[in-house]
Amino acid sequence: MQKLFEEVGSLDARCYEEFFLSEDILMEHAAQGMASYIKNNFSNNEKIIIAVGSGNNGADGIALARLLHGDYNVSLFFVKEPKSHMALLQEKRAQAINVPIIPKLQECNIFVDAIVGTGFDGEFNEKITTVLEKMNTLEAFKIACDVPSGLKKSGECAQTTFHADTTLTMGALKKSLFLDEAKDYIGKIEVLDLGISRKLYETQTNWHLLDLDDLQLPLRAQQNSYKGSFGHLAVLCGEKPGACVMSALAGLRFGAGLVTLVGYENHQMLNIPHSLMYAHALPSNTTAIACGMGLGVEFSDNELRNFLDNDLALIIDADLFSMEVILELLERKNIVLTPHPKEFVSLLKITELADISVEELQKKRFFYVELFCKAYPNTTLLLKGANVIIGSDNDFFINPHGSSKLAKGGSGDVLSGLIGSLLAQGKSPLDATIHGSLAHTKLAQNYTGADFSLTPEDLIQGIGNL
Ligand SMILES: NC(=O)C1=CN([C@@H]2O[C@H](COP(=O)(O)OP(=O)(O)OC[C@H]3O[C@@H](n4cnc5c(N)ncnc54)[C@H](OP(=O)(O)O)[C@@H]3O)[C@@H](O)[C@H]2O)[C@@H](O)CC1
Ligand SMILES: [K+]
Question: Which residues cross the membrane (predicted)?
Protein backbone atom coordinates (compact mmCIF):
# COMPACT_ATOMS: atom_id res chain seq x y z
CA MET A 1 0.00 0.00 0.00
CA GLN A 2 1.44 3.39 -0.95
CA LYS A 3 0.54 6.85 0.27
CA LEU A 4 -1.26 9.31 -1.98
CA PHE A 5 -1.21 13.12 -1.73
CA GLU A 6 -3.42 15.89 -3.03
CA GLU A 7 -0.30 18.02 -3.60
CA VAL A 8 3.40 17.72 -2.80
CA GLY A 9 4.29 21.42 -2.58
CA SER A 10 3.84 21.31 1.20
CA LEU A 11 6.09 18.23 1.40
CA ASP A 12 8.79 20.10 -0.57
CA ALA A 13 8.39 23.08 1.77
CA ARG A 14 8.86 20.79 4.78
CA CYS A 15 12.16 19.59 3.26
CA TYR A 16 13.42 23.17 3.06
CA GLU A 17 12.22 24.26 6.49
CA GLU A 18 12.71 21.17 8.65
CA PHE A 19 15.48 19.24 6.88
CA PHE A 20 17.55 22.21 5.59
CA LEU A 21 17.48 20.89 2.01
CA SER A 22 17.48 23.43 -0.82
CA GLU A 23 15.41 23.50 -4.00
CA ASP A 24 18.66 22.81 -5.86
CA ILE A 25 19.31 19.63 -3.82
CA LEU A 26 15.78 18.36 -4.40
CA MET A 27 15.98 19.06 -8.11
CA GLU A 28 19.39 17.42 -8.42
CA HIS A 29 17.99 14.25 -6.87
CA ALA A 30 14.96 14.37 -9.16
CA ALA A 31 17.26 14.59 -12.17
CA GLN A 32 19.63 11.94 -10.78
CA GLY A 33 16.64 9.62 -10.31
CA MET A 34 15.61 10.07 -13.93
CA ALA A 35 19.20 9.60 -15.12
CA SER A 36 19.50 6.36 -13.11
CA TYR A 37 16.24 5.10 -14.61
CA ILE A 38 17.57 5.73 -18.12
CA LYS A 39 21.02 4.28 -17.35
CA ASN A 40 19.46 1.15 -15.78
CA ASN A 41 17.08 0.53 -18.66
CA PHE A 42 18.78 1.74 -21.85
CA SER A 43 22.24 1.38 -23.40
CA ASN A 44 24.36 4.47 -24.06
CA ASN A 45 24.03 4.38 -27.83
CA GLU A 46 20.41 5.48 -27.57
CA LYS A 47 19.46 8.91 -28.88
CA ILE A 48 17.62 10.97 -26.27
CA ILE A 49 15.61 14.17 -26.71
CA ILE A 50 14.36 16.13 -23.73
CA ALA A 51 11.60 18.70 -24.42
CA VAL A 52 11.60 21.42 -21.77
CA GLY A 53 9.33 24.26 -20.69
CA SER A 54 9.96 27.49 -18.81
CA GLY A 55 9.30 26.44 -15.18
CA ASN A 56 10.87 23.99 -12.75
CA ASN A 57 9.60 20.96 -14.64
CA GLY A 58 11.70 22.23 -17.53
CA ALA A 59 14.56 22.81 -15.07
CA ASP A 60 14.39 19.11 -14.09
CA GLY A 61 14.71 18.25 -17.80
CA ILE A 62 17.70 20.55 -18.34
CA ALA A 63 19.44 19.07 -15.28
CA LEU A 64 18.79 15.58 -16.65
CA ALA A 65 20.40 16.55 -19.96
CA ARG A 66 23.52 17.75 -18.10
CA LEU A 67 23.74 14.45 -16.22
CA LEU A 68 23.43 12.34 -19.38
CA HIS A 69 25.59 14.48 -21.69
CA GLY A 70 28.95 12.83 -22.32
CA ASP A 71 27.57 9.31 -21.85
CA TYR A 72 24.49 9.52 -24.09
CA ASN A 73 23.62 11.29 -27.34
CA VAL A 74 21.27 13.73 -25.64
CA SER A 75 19.74 16.99 -26.94
CA LEU A 76 17.49 19.64 -25.45
CA PHE A 77 14.47 20.99 -27.27
CA PHE A 78 13.19 24.26 -25.77
CA VAL A 79 9.41 24.41 -26.15
CA LYS A 80 9.47 27.62 -24.06
CA GLU A 81 12.48 29.68 -23.05
CA PRO A 82 13.65 29.16 -19.43
CA LYS A 83 11.99 31.60 -17.06
CA SER A 84 12.01 30.35 -13.46
CA HIS A 85 15.09 30.98 -11.32
CA MET A 86 15.99 27.25 -11.34
CA ALA A 87 15.40 26.86 -15.08
CA LEU A 88 17.77 29.77 -15.79
CA LEU A 89 20.39 28.29 -13.44
CA GLN A 90 20.11 24.83 -15.02
CA GLU A 91 20.37 26.37 -18.49
CA LYS A 92 23.62 28.11 -17.49
CA ARG A 93 25.04 24.81 -16.18
CA ALA A 94 24.03 22.94 -19.34
CA GLN A 95 25.49 25.66 -21.58
CA ALA A 96 28.80 25.47 -19.71
CA ILE A 97 29.28 21.86 -20.82
CA ASN A 98 27.79 22.44 -24.29
CA VAL A 99 24.71 20.23 -24.08
CA PRO A 100 23.35 20.23 -27.67
CA ILE A 101 20.14 22.14 -28.40
CA ILE A 102 17.91 21.26 -31.36
CA PRO A 103 15.51 23.76 -32.98
CA LYS A 104 12.75 21.24 -33.74
CA LEU A 105 11.62 17.73 -32.87
CA GLN A 106 13.39 14.76 -34.42
CA GLU A 107 13.01 11.00 -34.22
CA CYS A 108 14.86 9.48 -31.26
CA ASN A 109 14.90 6.32 -29.13
CA ILE A 110 14.05 7.89 -25.81
CA PHE A 111 11.94 10.99 -25.41
CA VAL A 112 11.51 12.90 -22.15
CA ASP A 113 8.63 15.31 -21.63
CA ALA A 114 9.61 18.10 -19.21
CA ILE A 115 7.40 20.86 -20.59
CA VAL A 116 5.13 21.38 -17.59
CA GLY A 117 4.58 19.55 -14.31
CA THR A 118 2.52 20.36 -11.27
CA GLY A 119 2.39 24.07 -12.16
CA PHE A 120 0.23 23.54 -15.26
CA ASP A 121 -3.33 24.77 -15.48
CA GLY A 122 -5.83 25.75 -18.18
CA GLU A 123 -5.19 24.70 -21.78
CA PHE A 124 -2.13 24.86 -24.02
CA ASN A 125 -1.93 27.41 -26.83
CA GLU A 126 -1.92 26.22 -30.41
CA LYS A 127 1.87 26.18 -30.71
CA ILE A 128 2.43 23.89 -27.70
CA THR A 129 -0.55 21.73 -28.68
CA THR A 130 1.04 21.12 -32.08
CA VAL A 131 4.34 20.18 -30.42
CA LEU A 132 2.53 17.79 -28.04
CA GLU A 133 0.64 16.16 -30.89
CA LYS A 134 3.95 15.56 -32.66
CA MET A 135 5.54 14.25 -29.46
CA ASN A 136 2.74 11.71 -29.12
CA THR A 137 3.41 10.34 -32.61
CA LEU A 138 7.13 9.71 -31.97
CA GLU A 139 8.01 6.05 -31.91
CA ALA A 140 10.45 6.54 -29.06
CA PHE A 141 10.06 5.19 -25.53
CA LYS A 142 8.28 8.08 -23.82
CA ILE A 143 9.06 9.24 -20.30
CA ALA A 144 7.08 11.93 -18.46
CA CYS A 145 9.02 14.02 -15.94
CA ASP A 146 6.91 14.19 -12.75
CA VAL A 147 3.54 14.15 -14.57
CA PRO A 148 2.62 13.94 -18.27
CA SER A 149 2.39 17.50 -19.61
CA GLY A 150 -1.28 18.40 -19.76
CA LEU A 151 -2.32 16.58 -16.58
CA LYS A 152 -3.72 19.11 -14.11
CA LYS A 153 -3.60 19.07 -10.32
CA SER A 154 -7.26 18.06 -10.34
CA GLY A 155 -6.46 14.99 -12.46
CA GLU A 156 -8.28 16.42 -15.48
CA CYS A 157 -6.32 16.39 -18.72
CA ALA A 158 -5.79 19.14 -21.29
CA GLN A 159 -7.31 18.43 -24.68
CA THR A 160 -3.88 17.34 -25.83
CA THR A 161 -1.87 15.60 -23.14
CA PHE A 162 1.42 13.72 -23.35
CA HIS A 163 1.07 9.94 -23.65
CA ALA A 164 3.81 8.46 -21.46
CA ASP A 165 5.06 4.90 -21.38
CA THR A 166 6.47 5.65 -17.95
CA THR A 167 5.97 8.53 -15.55
CA LEU A 168 8.86 9.23 -13.19
CA THR A 169 7.19 11.21 -10.46
CA MET A 170 8.99 13.24 -7.82
CA GLY A 171 8.94 12.54 -4.09
CA ALA A 172 5.52 10.92 -3.65
CA LEU A 173 2.44 9.76 -5.55
CA LYS A 174 -0.11 12.41 -6.39
CA LYS A 175 -3.83 11.54 -6.40
CA SER A 176 -4.22 13.32 -9.73
CA LEU A 177 -2.29 10.51 -11.42
CA PHE A 178 -5.16 8.17 -10.56
CA LEU A 179 -8.24 10.01 -11.74
CA ASP A 180 -9.87 7.84 -14.43
CA GLU A 181 -9.10 10.39 -17.12
CA ALA A 182 -5.35 10.12 -16.45
CA LYS A 183 -5.24 6.34 -16.85
CA ASP A 184 -4.44 6.37 -20.56
CA TYR A 185 -1.66 8.96 -20.20
CA ILE A 186 0.57 7.98 -17.30
CA GLY A 187 1.88 4.55 -18.31
CA LYS A 188 3.85 2.83 -15.54
CA ILE A 189 4.67 4.94 -12.52
CA GLU A 190 7.86 5.12 -10.50
CA VAL A 191 8.48 7.43 -7.56
CA LEU A 192 11.91 9.09 -7.29
CA ASP A 193 13.41 10.15 -3.95
CA LEU A 194 14.33 13.82 -3.53
CA GLY A 195 17.34 13.64 -1.24
CA ILE A 196 15.74 11.87 1.69
CA SER A 197 13.97 8.54 1.90
CA ARG A 198 10.40 8.57 0.64
CA LYS A 199 9.35 7.41 4.12
CA LEU A 200 10.70 10.64 5.61
CA TYR A 201 9.51 12.86 2.75
CA GLU A 202 5.93 11.63 3.13
CA THR A 203 3.62 12.75 5.91
CA GLN A 204 0.34 11.37 7.23
CA THR A 205 -2.46 10.92 4.69
CA ASN A 206 -5.87 9.24 4.65
CA TRP A 207 -5.58 8.29 0.95
CA HIS A 208 -3.71 5.14 -0.12
CA LEU A 209 -2.99 3.30 -3.34
CA LEU A 210 -3.61 -0.44 -3.12
CA ASP A 211 -0.91 -2.84 -4.37
CA LEU A 212 -1.90 -6.25 -5.72
CA ASP A 213 0.32 -7.73 -3.00
CA ASP A 214 -2.08 -6.31 -0.40
CA LEU A 215 -4.63 -8.96 -1.42
CA GLN A 216 -5.52 -11.33 1.41
CA LEU A 217 -7.32 -14.47 0.27
CA PRO A 218 -9.83 -16.23 2.56
CA LEU A 219 -7.45 -19.16 3.03
CA ARG A 220 -8.68 -21.79 5.48
CA ALA A 221 -6.35 -22.16 8.43
CA GLN A 222 -8.79 -24.24 10.49
CA GLN A 223 -9.11 -27.92 9.51
CA ASN A 224 -11.67 -28.84 12.15
CA SER A 225 -14.49 -27.11 10.32
CA TYR A 226 -17.71 -27.63 8.37
CA LYS A 227 -19.62 -25.65 5.75
CA GLY A 228 -21.29 -23.52 8.41
CA SER A 229 -17.84 -22.35 9.57
CA PHE A 230 -17.49 -20.25 6.43
CA GLY A 231 -20.76 -18.36 6.45
CA HIS A 232 -23.92 -18.34 4.39
CA LEU A 233 -24.40 -15.77 1.64
CA ALA A 234 -27.97 -15.02 0.55
CA VAL A 235 -28.35 -13.40 -2.86
CA LEU A 236 -31.72 -11.74 -3.49
CA CYS A 237 -32.86 -12.94 -6.87
CA GLY A 238 -34.93 -10.48 -8.93
CA GLU A 239 -36.16 -9.96 -12.46
CA LYS A 240 -32.88 -10.86 -14.18
CA PRO A 241 -31.71 -13.91 -12.27
CA GLY A 242 -28.60 -14.43 -14.45
CA ALA A 243 -26.87 -11.56 -12.64
CA CYS A 244 -27.68 -13.14 -9.26
CA VAL A 245 -26.49 -16.58 -10.38
CA MET A 246 -23.11 -15.11 -11.41
CA SER A 247 -22.82 -13.27 -8.10
CA ALA A 248 -23.76 -16.37 -6.17
CA LEU A 249 -21.34 -18.61 -8.04
CA ALA A 250 -18.50 -16.11 -7.48
CA GLY A 251 -19.42 -16.01 -3.77
CA LEU A 252 -19.36 -19.79 -3.49
CA ARG A 253 -16.05 -20.10 -5.35
CA PHE A 254 -14.49 -17.38 -3.16
CA GLY A 255 -15.06 -19.39 -0.02
CA ALA A 256 -18.56 -18.89 1.40
CA GLY A 257 -19.61 -22.22 2.94
CA LEU A 258 -23.17 -21.91 1.61
CA VAL A 259 -24.85 -19.70 -0.96
CA THR A 260 -28.60 -19.42 -1.44
CA LEU A 261 -30.59 -17.54 -4.05
CA VAL A 262 -33.64 -16.00 -2.39
CA GLY A 263 -36.61 -15.08 -4.55
CA TYR A 264 -40.07 -15.91 -5.86
CA GLU A 265 -41.26 -19.33 -6.79
CA ASN A 266 -41.18 -18.87 -10.56
CA HIS A 267 -37.41 -18.78 -10.49
CA GLN A 268 -37.40 -22.32 -9.19
CA MET A 269 -38.17 -23.30 -12.75
CA LEU A 270 -34.89 -21.75 -13.85
CA ASN A 271 -31.91 -23.84 -14.57
CA ILE A 272 -30.05 -22.95 -11.38
CA PRO A 273 -26.60 -24.53 -10.99
CA HIS A 274 -26.73 -27.48 -8.60
CA SER A 275 -24.14 -26.00 -6.28
CA LEU A 276 -26.53 -23.18 -5.37
CA MET A 277 -29.58 -23.45 -3.16
CA TYR A 278 -32.92 -21.74 -3.67
CA ALA A 279 -35.32 -20.40 -1.01
CA HIS A 280 -38.30 -18.06 -0.66
CA ALA A 281 -37.12 -16.54 2.60
CA LEU A 282 -33.73 -15.78 4.11
CA PRO A 283 -32.17 -18.97 5.52
CA SER A 284 -31.96 -18.72 9.31
CA ASN A 285 -28.17 -19.08 9.34
CA THR A 286 -27.57 -16.34 6.74
CA THR A 287 -24.46 -14.30 7.60
CA ALA A 288 -24.51 -11.78 4.72
CA ILE A 289 -26.88 -10.59 2.00
CA ALA A 290 -26.15 -9.40 -1.53
CA CYS A 291 -28.91 -7.41 -3.14
CA GLY A 292 -29.53 -5.25 -6.20
CA MET A 293 -27.90 -7.15 -9.06
CA GLY A 294 -30.56 -7.97 -11.65
CA LEU A 295 -33.23 -6.83 -9.20
CA GLY A 296 -35.35 -4.95 -11.74
CA VAL A 297 -38.80 -4.08 -10.43
CA GLU A 298 -39.55 -7.52 -9.07
CA PHE A 299 -39.71 -6.49 -5.40
CA SER A 300 -41.54 -3.48 -4.03
CA ASP A 301 -39.81 -1.29 -1.42
CA ASN A 302 -41.93 -3.00 1.26
CA GLU A 303 -41.00 -6.50 0.15
CA LEU A 304 -37.35 -5.49 0.25
CA ARG A 305 -37.83 -4.04 3.73
CA ASN A 306 -39.06 -7.48 4.86
CA PHE A 307 -36.03 -9.27 3.44
CA LEU A 308 -33.65 -6.69 4.88
CA ASP A 309 -35.22 -6.24 8.31
CA ASN A 310 -32.15 -7.54 10.17
CA ASP A 311 -28.61 -6.52 11.19
CA LEU A 312 -26.80 -8.76 8.74
CA ALA A 313 -23.87 -7.54 6.67
CA LEU A 314 -25.22 -6.31 3.35
CA ILE A 315 -23.76 -5.48 -0.05
CA ILE A 316 -25.97 -3.54 -2.41
CA ASP A 317 -25.58 -2.79 -6.09
CA ALA A 318 -27.29 -1.75 -9.31
CA ASP A 319 -31.06 -1.16 -9.32
CA LEU A 320 -31.26 -0.51 -5.57
CA PHE A 321 -29.47 2.83 -5.92
CA SER A 322 -32.49 4.46 -7.48
CA MET A 323 -35.10 3.03 -5.05
CA GLU A 324 -36.46 5.02 -2.09
CA VAL A 325 -35.67 2.20 0.34
CA ILE A 326 -31.99 3.01 -0.09
CA LEU A 327 -32.32 5.91 2.39
CA GLU A 328 -33.30 3.49 5.16
CA LEU A 329 -30.59 1.03 4.19
CA LEU A 330 -27.95 3.73 4.52
CA GLU A 331 -28.69 3.83 8.25
CA ARG A 332 -27.33 0.26 8.62
CA LYS A 333 -23.88 -0.34 10.02
CA ASN A 334 -22.49 -3.24 8.00
CA ILE A 335 -23.28 -2.04 4.53
CA VAL A 336 -21.19 -1.94 1.34
CA LEU A 337 -22.33 0.02 -1.73
CA THR A 338 -20.78 -0.64 -5.14
CA PRO A 339 -22.24 1.89 -7.62
CA HIS A 340 -20.88 2.70 -11.05
CA PRO A 341 -20.71 6.44 -11.85
CA LYS A 342 -24.30 6.69 -13.14
CA GLU A 343 -25.65 4.89 -10.08
CA PHE A 344 -23.52 7.04 -7.78
CA VAL A 345 -24.94 10.19 -9.37
CA SER A 346 -28.42 8.84 -8.67
CA LEU A 347 -27.43 8.01 -5.07
CA LEU A 348 -26.04 11.53 -4.57
CA LYS A 349 -29.33 12.92 -5.81
CA ILE A 350 -31.57 10.70 -3.65
CA THR A 351 -29.50 11.57 -0.59
CA GLU A 352 -29.67 15.27 -1.58
CA LEU A 353 -25.90 15.54 -1.37
CA ALA A 354 -25.48 16.73 -4.97
CA ASP A 355 -27.36 17.00 -8.23
CA ILE A 356 -24.63 16.54 -10.82
CA SER A 357 -24.01 14.89 -14.16
CA VAL A 358 -21.82 11.83 -14.66
CA GLU A 359 -19.26 14.10 -16.40
CA GLU A 360 -19.06 16.35 -13.35
CA LEU A 361 -18.68 13.34 -11.09
CA GLN A 362 -15.86 11.93 -13.20
CA LYS A 363 -13.94 15.22 -12.95
CA LYS A 364 -14.22 15.25 -9.16
CA ARG A 365 -14.44 11.59 -8.19
CA PHE A 366 -12.26 12.02 -5.11
CA PHE A 367 -14.28 14.96 -3.86
CA TYR A 368 -17.68 13.25 -4.19
CA VAL A 369 -16.50 10.02 -2.58
CA GLU A 370 -15.26 12.07 0.39
CA LEU A 371 -18.53 14.00 0.49
CA PHE A 372 -20.60 10.82 0.60
CA CYS A 373 -18.41 9.08 3.19
CA LYS A 374 -18.54 12.12 5.45
CA ALA A 375 -22.34 12.14 5.28
CA TYR A 376 -22.62 8.36 5.79
CA PRO A 377 -19.61 7.36 7.89
CA ASN A 378 -21.07 3.92 8.72
CA THR A 379 -21.13 2.80 5.10
CA THR A 380 -18.34 1.49 2.88
CA LEU A 381 -18.46 2.87 -0.64
CA LEU A 382 -16.81 1.40 -3.74
CA LEU A 383 -17.10 3.70 -6.75
CA LYS A 384 -16.50 1.72 -9.91
CA GLY A 385 -14.41 3.12 -12.73
CA ALA A 386 -11.12 2.70 -14.56
CA ASN A 387 -9.53 3.20 -11.13
CA VAL A 388 -11.81 1.97 -8.36
CA ILE A 389 -12.15 4.22 -5.30
CA ILE A 390 -13.03 2.75 -1.92
CA GLY A 391 -14.01 4.96 1.01
CA SER A 392 -15.16 4.39 4.54
CA ASP A 393 -15.53 7.21 7.07
CA ASN A 394 -12.18 9.01 6.70
CA ASP A 395 -10.12 6.29 5.00
CA PHE A 396 -9.78 6.17 1.22
CA PHE A 397 -8.15 3.71 -1.14
CA ILE A 398 -7.63 3.59 -4.89
CA ASN A 399 -7.35 0.28 -6.71
CA PRO A 400 -5.63 1.10 -10.04
CA HIS A 401 -5.15 -2.52 -11.16
CA GLY A 402 -8.31 -2.89 -13.24
CA SER A 403 -8.29 -2.79 -17.02
CA SER A 404 -10.71 -2.52 -19.91
CA LYS A 405 -10.94 -6.34 -19.87
CA LEU A 406 -13.46 -5.85 -17.04
CA ALA A 407 -15.69 -3.50 -19.07
CA LYS A 408 -18.34 -6.13 -19.74
CA GLY A 409 -21.83 -6.94 -18.46
CA GLY A 410 -21.72 -9.26 -15.48
CA SER A 411 -18.28 -8.34 -14.23
CA GLY A 412 -19.85 -6.10 -11.55
CA ASP A 413 -22.08 -9.00 -10.48
CA VAL A 414 -18.97 -11.10 -9.92
CA LEU A 415 -17.49 -8.28 -7.81
CA SER A 416 -20.61 -8.21 -5.62
CA GLY A 417 -20.31 -11.96 -5.15
CA LEU A 418 -16.65 -11.70 -4.13
CA ILE A 419 -17.32 -8.96 -1.59
CA GLY A 420 -20.50 -10.69 -0.37
CA SER A 421 -18.56 -13.90 0.13
CA LEU A 422 -15.96 -12.18 2.34
CA LEU A 423 -18.73 -10.45 4.30
CA ALA A 424 -20.41 -13.82 4.83
CA GLN A 425 -17.07 -15.22 6.04
CA GLY A 426 -16.88 -12.53 8.71
CA LYS A 427 -14.60 -9.89 7.21
CA SER A 428 -15.36 -6.26 8.07
CA PRO A 429 -17.12 -4.27 5.31
CA LEU A 430 -13.94 -2.31 4.53
CA ASP A 431 -11.68 -5.39 4.41
CA ALA A 432 -14.24 -7.34 2.36
CA THR A 433 -14.43 -4.47 -0.13
CA ILE A 434 -10.67 -3.95 -0.43
CA HIS A 435 -9.87 -7.64 -0.85
CA GLY A 436 -12.90 -8.37 -3.05
CA SER A 437 -11.87 -5.52 -5.34
CA LEU A 438 -8.21 -6.59 -5.44
CA ALA A 439 -9.24 -10.18 -6.20
CA HIS A 440 -11.52 -8.92 -9.00
CA THR A 441 -8.76 -6.92 -10.70
CA LYS A 442 -6.20 -9.69 -10.22
CA LEU A 443 -8.58 -12.16 -11.86
CA ALA A 444 -8.66 -9.94 -14.95
CA GLN A 445 -4.88 -9.57 -14.92
CA ASN A 446 -4.44 -13.34 -14.66
CA TYR A 447 -6.70 -13.94 -17.66
CA THR A 448 -4.50 -14.85 -20.61
CA GLY A 449 -7.05 -14.65 -23.45
CA ALA A 450 -7.50 -11.64 -25.74
CA ASP A 451 -8.47 -8.55 -23.73
CA PHE A 452 -11.89 -8.25 -25.39
CA SER A 453 -12.87 -11.83 -24.61
CA LEU A 454 -13.04 -11.98 -20.80
CA THR A 455 -16.46 -13.12 -19.53
CA PRO A 456 -17.89 -13.30 -15.99
CA GLU A 457 -17.58 -17.08 -16.25
CA ASP A 458 -13.83 -16.71 -16.91
CA LEU A 459 -13.53 -14.55 -13.80
CA ILE A 460 -15.38 -17.11 -11.68
CA GLN A 461 -13.29 -19.93 -13.09
CA GLY A 462 -10.07 -18.06 -12.28
CA ILE A 463 -10.91 -17.67 -8.58
CA GLY A 464 -9.41 -21.07 -7.79
CA ASN A 465 -6.02 -19.94 -9.12
CA LEU A 466 -5.74 -16.60 -7.33
N1 LIG B 1 9.24 22.36 -5.82
C2 LIG B 1 10.35 21.65 -5.77
O3 LIG B 1 11.09 21.74 -4.83
C4 LIG B 1 10.65 20.70 -6.82
C5 LIG B 1 9.98 20.75 -8.02
N6 LIG B 1 10.28 19.94 -9.00
C7 LIG B 1 9.73 20.10 -10.34
O8 LIG B 1 9.09 21.33 -10.46
C9 LIG B 1 7.82 21.17 -11.08
C10 LIG B 1 6.92 22.26 -10.68
O11 LIG B 1 7.54 23.42 -11.12
P12 LIG B 1 6.76 24.79 -11.29
O13 LIG B 1 6.01 25.05 -10.05
O14 LIG B 1 7.75 25.79 -11.74
O15 LIG B 1 5.72 24.47 -12.40
P16 LIG B 1 5.84 23.78 -13.85
O17 LIG B 1 5.25 22.44 -13.73
O18 LIG B 1 7.20 23.86 -14.41
O19 LIG B 1 4.87 24.69 -14.64
C20 LIG B 1 5.07 26.08 -14.61
C21 LIG B 1 5.29 26.52 -15.99
O22 LIG B 1 4.19 26.07 -16.75
C23 LIG B 1 3.78 27.07 -17.60
N24 LIG B 1 2.33 26.96 -17.80
C25 LIG B 1 1.36 26.87 -16.87
N26 LIG B 1 0.16 26.76 -17.44
C27 LIG B 1 0.39 26.80 -18.77
C28 LIG B 1 -0.45 26.74 -19.91
N29 LIG B 1 -1.79 26.63 -19.81
N30 LIG B 1 0.12 26.78 -21.13
C31 LIG B 1 1.45 26.90 -21.26
N32 LIG B 1 2.31 26.96 -20.22
C33 LIG B 1 1.77 26.91 -19.00
C34 LIG B 1 4.19 28.38 -16.98
O35 LIG B 1 4.62 29.20 -17.99
P36 LIG B 1 4.24 30.77 -17.96
O37 LIG B 1 2.75 30.77 -18.10
O38 LIG B 1 4.70 31.26 -16.66
O39 LIG B 1 4.94 31.30 -19.13
C40 LIG B 1 5.34 28.00 -16.04
O41 LIG B 1 6.60 28.38 -16.56
C42 LIG B 1 7.39 19.80 -10.66
O43 LIG B 1 6.43 19.27 -11.55
C44 LIG B 1 8.71 19.06 -10.70
O45 LIG B 1 8.97 18.62 -12.02
C46 LIG B 1 11.29 18.90 -8.81
O47 LIG B 1 12.48 19.40 -9.32
C48 LIG B 1 11.49 18.54 -7.38
C49 LIG B 1 11.71 19.71 -6.54
K1 LIG C 1 6.04 16.78 -17.71
Answer: none
State the distance from the centre of ligand 1 to the C-alpha of 117, rounded, in angstroms: 5
Same domain, 190 and 231: no
- Taking CA atoms only, the protein residue closest to ligand 1 atom 31 is 124
**119 assigned to a ligand binding site:** yes
Which atom number of ligand 1 is nearest to the Cα of residue 122?
29
User: Closest-lying ligand to the alpha carbon of 117?
Assistant: 1
Q: How far is ligand 2, taken at its centre, from the CA of residue 280, in Å?
A: 59
Q: Are residue 355 and residue 410 in the same domain, yes or no?
A: yes
pLDDT tens-digit profile, the chain (466 residues): 999 999 999 999 999 999 999 999 999 999 999 999 999 999 988 999 999 999 999 999 999 999 999 999 999 999 999 999 999 999 999 999 999 999 999 999 999 999 999 999 899 999 999 999 999 999 999 999 999 999 998 888 999 999 999 999 999 999 999 999 999 999 999 999 999 999 999 999 999 999 999 999 999 988 988 888 899 999 998 888 889 999 999 999 999 999 999 987 665 556 788 888 888 889 999 999 999 888 887 788 888 888 888 999 999 998 888 888 899 999 998 999 999 999 999 999 999 999 999 999 999 999 999 999 999 999 999 999 999 999 999 999 999 999 999 999 999 999 999 999 999 999 999 999 999 999 999 999 999 999 999 999 999 999 999 9
Say how many Å lie between the CA of residue 109 and the centre of ligand 1.
25
Identify which of 14, 81, 120, 132 to mutate to test ligand 1's pocket (most ligand atoms within 8 A of the CB): 120
- Structural domain of 53: 2-205
pTM of the predicted structure, to 2 decimals: 0.94
- CA 115 / ligand 1 centre spacing (Å): 8
What is the CA(99)–ligand 1 centre distance, in A?
22
Whether 103 and 62 share a structural domain? yes
198 and 259 together in one domain: no
The ligand 1 site (C-beta within 6 Å) comprises: 12, 23, 26-27, 30, 53-58, 60, 83-84, 116-124, 128, 145-146, 170, 194
The CATH number assigned to the domain holding 371 equals: 3.40.1190.20
Quick one: 81 and 167 in the same domain?
Answer: yes
Q: What is the ipTM of this complex?
A: 0.96
CATH number of the domain residue 96 falls in: 3.40.50.10260
The residue whose C-alpha atom lies closest to atom 17 belonging to ligand 1 is 117
Query: What gap in Å lies between CA 49 and CA 109, rounded to an integer?
Result: 8
